[in-house]
Design goal:
seven-stranded mixed beta sheet; alpha/beta; Metallo-beta-lactamase, Chain A; 8 helices; 16 strands
Length: about 300
């Protein structure tokens, strides 16, 4: 079990170093996308953009994948967080890479300012999983809480794996575990960090849906309002041009590839059947999907 978990995390860390060192980081200049879903106001906040090589895919031939990207062997992929304003809360889902991800990352606060919401207004942060591009924007440059009035909620399984005693973590993962602890510790010390169990109702129409496979505790967040449903799906998908058309294509840094594929297909089927708006950390916009045989057809999410 240790080997299965260790390899994807080490590989992902290597990819980040490689991208940053080679200057492949980039910021798509797309402006905030805003939707109104029932009583919810939702903003897509693009913190950064990273080039992902198609060689990171599994379960699909590289040439077949390139046909779906117009011949490109890498794609510029957004790194998004999402801001959800409810009648009772201002919620941030994930926090992006932060300023340490390269010269063109760390745009979260800039994007929040454009939405007219200051970090101090955020009172709840929901974390889908603990990869670098989801928890990298939690702290100020001097290591303090960037969101001083927020409580972080995180999946129990994800938290248990990474925040246990370092001696219990495989040696090759201890550096990463230390980085995760450093990102969360100011919130833990302030008693502003709480975990939840699978399928837990988080209140106010928010539910945590287990979507394991990408990581040990990867979670989708469902928001419901006035008969409408909106999901923040985290890393359920990385390559939108490919994995909607071929949802059985995985990525090599999934902790459990087969489980991740199974969860992706099941969530996509449900989203299509229920007309759910889905928001992915690595999708350029919020969308709706429809099932078409073994694929899914994507359309921009439009609300009135």
């Amino acid at each position: 079990m240790r080997t299965k978990v260790a390899v994807p995390y080490l590989f992902l860390a290597f990819i980040v170093v490689l991208i940053s060192a080679s200057g492949m980081m980039g910021q798509d200049k797309q402006v905030n996308q805003k939707l109104v879903v029932g009583d919810l106001k939702i903003w897509k906040l693009q913190d950064a953009g990273i080039y992902l090589k198609l060689s990171l895919l599994s379960g699909i031939d590289l040439q077949d994948a390139m046909k779906l990207t117009g011949g490109r062997d890498s794609i510029l992929t957004p790194v998004n967080a999402f801001l959800v304003q409810t009648p009772n809360h201002v919620i941030l889902v994930d926090s992006g890479i932060g300023g340490k991800g390269g010269p063109n990352s760390g745009h979260l606060i800039e994007q929040m300012n454009a939405a007219g919401i200051a970090p101090s207004k955020v009172d709840l942060i929901l974390i889908t999983h603990f990869h670098f591009d989801h928890i990298g924007g939690l702290l100020t440059s001097d290591g303090k809480r960037l969101f001083p009035n927020a409580i972080i909620r995180a999946p129990q399984m994800e938290s248990d794996f990474w925040l246990r005693d370092l001696s219990l973590i495989p040696a090759e993962q201890r550096t990463r575990a230390g980085q995760i602890k450093a990102a969360l510790e100011p919130y833990i010390l302030a008693k502003a960090y709480r975990t939840f169990h699978p399928d837990e109702n988080l209140g106010n129409g928010i539910k945590a849906l287990p979507a394991y496979g990408h990581t040990v505790g990867h979670t989708v967040y469902s928001f419901s309002s006035k008969g409408n449903e909106f999901w923040c799906i985290g890393d359920l998908i990385h390559f939108g041009d490919i994995q909607f058309k071929n949802p059985s294509a995985g990525v090599v840094f999934d902790t459990n590839s087969q489980m991740a594929i199974k969860e992706r297909i099941e969530f996509f089927k449900q989203a299509a059947a229920k007309h759910v708006i889905i928001a992915g950390a690595h999708l350029p916009e919020m969308v709706r999907i429809e099932k078409s045989e073994n694929s899914f057809v994507v359309s921009p999410a439009i609300t009135h």
